[in-house]
Design brief:
The complex is a heterotrimer of chains A (373), B (361) and C (131).
Chain A lengths: L2 E4 L2 E4 L15 E3 L4 H4 L11 E8 L2 E7 L6 H12 L7 E6 L10 E6 L4 H14 L3 E9 L13 H4 L14 E10 L6 H4 L10 E6 L2 H9 L5 E3 L12 H9 L3 E5 L1 H5 L1 H18 L4 E4 L11 H10 L4 H6 L3 H16 L4 E3 L6 H18 L1
Parallel strand pairs in A: 7-8, 8-9, 9-10, 10-11, 11-12, 12-13
Antiparallel strand pairs in A: 1-2, 3-14, 4-5, 4-6
Helix pairs in contact in A: 6-7
Chain B lengths: L1 H5 L5 E8 L7 H6 L4 E9 L6 H8 L4 E8 L6 H8 L3 E7 L8 E4 L4 E7 H7 L4 E2 L9 E7 L10 H13 L3 E9 L5 H5 L7 E4 L2 E13 L16 H12 L21 E16 L1 H13 L9 E8 L20 E8 L3 E8 L8
Chain C lengths: L15 E6 L4 E10 L8 H21 L3 E7 L4 E7 L3 H9 L3 E2 L2 E11 L16
Antiparallel strand pairs in C: 2-4, 2-6, 3-4, 5-6
Helix pairs in contact in C: 1-2
């Protein structure tokens, strides 16, 4: 298998059909290996969606395997072997992502409002589990408009809840993740995202709520976030334009619509539906997630109820179901890769890997191999 | 957009009319072909007490078992295959797994192990399968079928080694399983001790019964499946009405009623009483067939009733509905059938499925 | 919408098979109304009125004119079975979803099961609870 050694990791030559993590068809996606994340054995935990992976140890190439089609047990063997050596700092573990990131369709609500009232939070989680949600994100809001303040540390679910409620009709407990939502009205607010702030890194998902068109544009095209919130409490203050939205879809960022305000108030309901419809005109139902932003258990709705609501927002039936299931998982994985990669994702177009480059780099690898042995 | 709203989810209702005496009668196919049954109910008009025979039939529906954390590779073990698959009809269905979200597994009495798994699992599993018919353009779910009775599935063959490796080493999938076994020559409970190393619990089907009084009931003509205006009701109307009966819906309404305008299909007659019985659990087709035979024999002695009805509800999260045809869950996972047994051995059979199902046999 | 295929066998005239697609004009929903606090009283007419007002709030007068039936209602658990024409299902469902209060009591509708067959609501295997 041909491969090239890029400036910021290993660029492999396996084919990626499509890639959601900021790239185009045929791009390479590479990021540096983080031992911490990988020690949780990726093939059994969440990051099992790799379509191709390549294992490099001490600069030498161990193997690269395609994970599609299925008969690829060698790759798993290689991966398992690699797991044994991940603690070595020189080990690099590179995987390429496939657009089929999101293949599980368990239901998720990626927005449950954080409150210091642990009892209430617990009862929200219980209700969510009872309604059939398998994953819930507890949302911390950082509003720089109000006052300049530090971003809170996320709650630690295992500390808050000694035993998590069992999901209705299943034998597993609900999974709780953390999320940060930045409300931004000024470009300076985004600095937290640009610099690799240690605080934002603590969260599983980072969302941004841009108040101006400029910030919306920035969020879609350059900010390292997983979700972009769509306003539901006021008339959409700016037009949705095709280029930034397409850019966001290409980068694997999701647009979030919350439904609790429209349960509480009929004016908000109008704004929600109208803003949702104007978003759908541009994004065509792609990359949308729906969540609750519930503060109380009774504000939560069942996954199929929310999917039906999606039809009202202009989604097709399949897109509406994806908005409470597979899209949420994709957003979560997007968050996971952001954490892993420290926000550094290098993409390189396939045609840029020229013949000369390859010729140059192949000897390097061979050299590395010989050095290793 | 409005179209999408107003389109109703697709559903199918198959109605058949035949006679039990006919050689070509397909009642056995419908019953035996529907492996996983959650609830069996029957309704006997003009009956105040259950005949002793029927009582003993439903009392002997047999036990079923819940085994926790049963590794899938147990099913490809040849000890298991020789004991259970080859000497009887073995039924297993994963419990507390939702087919619209989770991986699901089942063993059919034909000796097929069926896995319905999401794409992640499928890609890691390393076994050949088919994309699910109902997972849309972007395939999210795959169906893997392993024939345990296949001649090439003997120990130490390449195929067997591969499957064992996939399920034991590569991806040790575990499920809680509902199990039941039907065998004519081996004691079931002793055979089940095979699983005693695992956490296993025994269950009896739950039986409830009640007597309904002054019930409005549609008039049926056994030869008129589609009904005749002013003379008899159609099979579909009866199907709907049975739903009303089992859900305790009041049929005494008028078109001007505020709460509900539902009323019994016309023409109708009033039954002074009717016996309704429901058995819930993990019920084998063999037992249902046995019950059906006894319900037919109910008419051996002259009875007031013209017909009796037998309704069977399938599991919403089963990977198959009839035989091996794929079953899915799309807002609901209905797969059910109903027999109307007439006093001259004629019968109506109705089979209903929802959106993610093929046409019943 | 309805396809009827009849196969009348030549030898035996008593066999008949009919396949009907989307035969049910109605959809049935099993729902339950949940309240935060105990002690709220609600009878069937009030329940129907509540759903009608939810329909009117979201879909206007056309929504409120949608004919639907409350086939059963249990005053203790506030659970009910509704019947709605297929075309009105999404309207009714979304109206139920967005309802948040009844007479200043916070509440939520939980949709337990839906089906085009009323008979299917009599057996929901997801309710099989074994310990």
């Amino acid at each position: 298998m041909d491969w090239v050694y890029g400036p910021n990791g290993i660029l492999t030559k396996t084919t990626i059909t499509r890639c959601k993590l900021g790239g185009r068809t045929g791009d390479w996606v590479v990021w540096p290996f983080q031992p911490k994340i990988c020690s949780t054995t990726p093939y059994t935990s969440g990051i099992s969606c790799l379509s191709a992976l390549c294992i490099v140890q001490g600069g030498s190439f161990l193997g690269i395997e395609h994970r599609e089609p299925v008969r690829n047990y060698k790759s798993l063997r290689a991966m398992r072997d690699a797991d044994a050596v991940v603690s070595a700092p020189s080990t690099r573990f590179v995987w390429c992502l496939n657009y089929c990131f999101s293949s599980m369709s368990v239901f998720a609500d990626l927005n449950v409002s954080y409150t210091s009232d642990v009892k209430r939070l617990q009862s929200i989680l219980e209700t969510a589990a009872h309604l059939g949600y398998s994953t819930v994100a507890i949302n911390h809001i950082a509003d720089f408009q109000e006052k300049k303040k530090e971003i809170d540390k996320p709650v630690c679910p295992s500390e808050l809840f000694p035993s998590l409620p069992i999901v209705q009709g299943k034998s597993k407990p609900i999974k709780v993740v953390t999320r940060l939502t930045l409300i931004t009205s000024d470009p300076s607010h985004c600095n937290v995202l640009r610099s690799t702030s240690p605080r934002t890194k603590l969260y599983d998902i980072v969302a941004v709520f841009p108040k101006t068109e400029k910030l919306f544009h920035a969020a879609c095209t350059s900010l390292d976030v997983d979700l972009i919130c769509i306003s539901v409490t006021e008339k959409q203050p700016f037009y949705f334009r095709r280029p930034p939205i397409n850019a966001a879809i290409e980068r694997g960022i999701f647009f979030e619509l919350v439904y609790t305000p429209s349960i509480k108030d009929s004016t908000m309901r109008r704004y929600t539906i109208s803003n949702a419809l104007s978003l759908m005109q541009i994004c065509k139902g792609k990359n949308v997630i729906m969540s609750s932003s519930a503060e109380r258990p009774l504000e939560l709705r069942g996954p199929y109820d929310v999917a039906t609501l999606g039809l009202l927002f202009g989604l097709s039936e399949a897109d509406a179901k994806a908005a409470v299931s597979s899209n949420c998982r994709a957003a979560l994985l997007h968050g996971e890769t952001r954490k892993t990669a420290f926000g550094i994702v290098y993409t390189m177009k396939k045609h840029q890997v020229t013949v000369t480059e390859e010729k140059e780099t192949v000897p390097v690898c061979k050299k590395a191999k010989t050095e290793e042995t | 957009m409005l179209r999408e709203w107003e389109r109703c989810p697709r559903h199918l209702l198959v109605s058949e009319r035949s006679n039990f005496q006919l050689e070509r009668s397909r009642h056995g196919v419908a019953v035996r072909g529907h492996p996983f049954n959650y609830r069996v109910s029957f309704l006997i008009p003009e009956c105040g007490a259950l005949p002793v025979k029927l009582k003993s039939v439903i009392k002997n529906f047999g036990k079923y078992y819940l085994v926790k954390d049963l590794p899938l590779h147990e099913f490809v073990n040849h000890d298991f295959i020789n004991i259970f698959i080859k000497k009887g009809a073995f039924y297993a269905l994963s419990y507390n797994t939702k087919i619209d979200q989770d991986n699901t597994a089942a063993v059919l009495p034909t000796g097929k192990l069926i896995l319905s798994v999401d794409k992640d699992t499928y890609e890691e599993l390393g076994l050949q399968g088919q994309p699910s018919r109902y997972s849309g353009k972007k395939v999210m779910r795959y169906i893997v079928t392993i024939d345990l009775t296949d001649a090439s599935f003997l120990p130490d063959t390449k195929k067997h080694k591969r499957v064992l490796w996939a399920l034991k080493e590569n991806m040790p999938l575990k499920f809680d399983f509902l199990l039941a076994w039907h065998s004519t020559d081996v004691e079931v409970s002793t055979a089940m001790s095979y699983f005693s190393k695992l956490k296993m619990k025994e269950y009896e089907p739950n039986i409830t019964s009640s007597i309904l009084r002054d019930l409005h009931c549609p008039v049926l003509q056994n030869s008129e499946l589609q009904g005749k205006p002013e003379e008899s009701c159609s099979a579909h109307e009866l199907f709907d009405w049975l739903g009303a009966v089992y859900n305790n819906v009041d049929c005494n309404n008028h078109s001007y009623s505020f709460i509900s305008t539902y009323c019994c299909p016309q023409p109708s007659a009033v039954l002074s009483q009717a016996y309704m019985c429901t058995v819930t659990g993990f019920i084998l087709p063999e037992k249902i067939h046995h019950l059906m035979d006894h319900l037919c024999q109910y008419f051996d002695e002259p009875k007031l009733a013209q017909w009796v009805s037998l309704t069977v509800h399938g599991f919403a999260d089963s990977p198959v509905s009839w035989k091996e045809s794929e079953h899915g869950f799309h807002k609901s996972g209905e797969n059910l059938y109903n027999f109307v047994i007439f006093n001259n051995q004629d019968y109506w059979l109705q089979m209903a499925v929802g959106t993610n199902d093929d046409c019943p046999p | 919408m309805i396809k009827v295929s009849k196969e009348k066998s030549h030898e035996v005239a008593t066999y008949e098979r009919q396949v009907q697609k989307n035969v049910s004009e109605y959809h049935y929903m099993k729902i339950r109304l949940e309240f935060q606090e105990k002690g709220v009283h609600l009878n069937a007419p009030h329940f129907k009125q509540l759903i009608l007002s939810a329909l009117r709030d979201l879909h206007g007068e056309v929504g409120a004119a949608l004919p639907f039936d409350i086939l059963t209602f249990d005053e203790k658990s506030f659970s009910a079975i509704l019947r709605i024409s297929n075309r009105g299902l999404v309207k009714l469902w979304s109206a139920l979803t967005l309802l948040g209060s009844y007479q200043n009591h916070k509440c939520a509708f939980r949709v337990l099961q839906t089906s085009p067959f009323l008979l299917a609501l009599a057996g929901n295997s997801r309710e099989l609870a074994l310990d």
